[in-house]
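We close this part of the discussion by returning to an individual protein. The amino acid sequence and the backbone structure tokens for this protein are reproduced below:
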Amino acid sequence: MSPSDPFESHFDEVTALLYLEGQLEPERAREVEAHVDSCTSCAQLLRALEKESVWLREALTADDESIPARVIAAPHPTGAHWGWIAAFGLSAAGLYTVWNGLVAPTLARASDAGFSQGNLFTILFFQGAFWQGWDTMRNMTELLAFATLAAVAIWLLRKQWHRFTAISFVMGALVCALGFAPRAQAADLEHGNPSYTLPAGREVKTDLMVIADHVRIDGDVDGDLVVTSQYVEVNGHIKGDILAFTQELLANGPVDGNVRCSCHTMVLNSTVGRNVMGFTGDTELADKATVGGTMTLFSETAELNGRVTGDLLAAGGDININGFLGHDAAIRADRLTVGSGAEIVGQTKYEGRRQPDVASSAKLGSPIQVTVLKRGPDYSQVAYYWHRVLLWGASFLFGLVVLLVVPAFFADALQAAGRVGPAMGFGILFLFATPIAALIACVTIVGLGLGIATLLLYLIAIYSAQVFIGSWLGEKLLGVGAGLGPAIGRLALGLAIIRALTMIPFVGGLILLIVTIWGLGALVLALHREMGPHVAAAA
């Protein structure tokens, strides 16, 4: 390099880049040009940097590069905050209300009703019939329903909440976990081939669970007896409870606990230490039989000739009392007969379509309070329309939660409701096939949990049918509109129309049946679409 060269060796990359960008001073730029003419290495560096600059500019200005659709797509509001807050906030508030209004008083009487063994679900399922607050239950329920509707109305008028989502989720899950914590329990499981007999003199030291065509218990059971059979005869001593799903139950031996039966015929010829609950076609309490607690019956016909120490809660067709009732009686039936040998210590309330037949020699602690029911709804009473409003509010709240939590599935069900023919066909199929399959599963202990869960989901699906059809009707009347507000308006209007149509005499029940079948079919089609294979859209 000549001595006159201003660069002692070579210029650096920064100077070269500034030269290429035209940002050097004119005198400095001339010096770089002069040096490049005499220095081969600096000339190569300058050419390399010039090529890189051209590539960079082309990359930045290219407009034909393929960009994924998920990158260029505009953000779509999903309403996730609304869904989480609506689901878990309302669930936590509802569970808290139920706990303080129903479960807490029920648990206070749990030991008297004999539900010391089992989880909270069992207590809620069975114990509700023993709760002594039936007179005030209806008013409290209506008050809670009105308060819930008012709270939701205020909530809808507020702006969207964007906080406390995680808190709502944790609190709702915590309440559910505390409320439905199960408890493990050992039992002796026996399968008849095809019958099962526990011989006299033999004692089972734990709970006994039997599945057979015919069951005969001549020995003793130290725990509970859970049986599924066509015919059950109990002659031994049951120190726990009897839980039976059978055609006919004949209890000749003493039972220290409770008897809970779902069967066609239940005959009690012995002593039951605590309570009796029966969902039966025919019930007979023999002359020598004694019930130490409350007797709750849902029976077509009932012959009560024995002693009931506690209350009698009965609903059915034909109720005949010719025994002793040591406390109050609340009866709702088509016909009530109080025989000459009957003795009722407490008050007796009867609701039916005809006056009760009371023998003159019957011993009553007080005159029977009779309420004669009219056939069909009483359109002259304000309470009738108030109850219809509450029913509308309950369905609206349910539909609102579904809309906010699973908006995509709600839209699929709404679209499926437009396919009237397939929806009606699938609705008829699943309306009758689902409970049959669930009951078949309940016959076996292995499928008992699955059968009960299926029945619960089936009831939820039946109730949700009106929600999808109501939204479909609202869309047909108001038109299709984007956004949450129009969807809520369509839901409210459609449910109101359905509720009004079901109030029409003679045809209201048929309309409700059609709506149920239609909505259930739409739900099935939407579920099939969700569970079916999805083909990814091409880029």
Notes: The first helix runs from residue 13 to 20. Residues 80-179 form one domain.
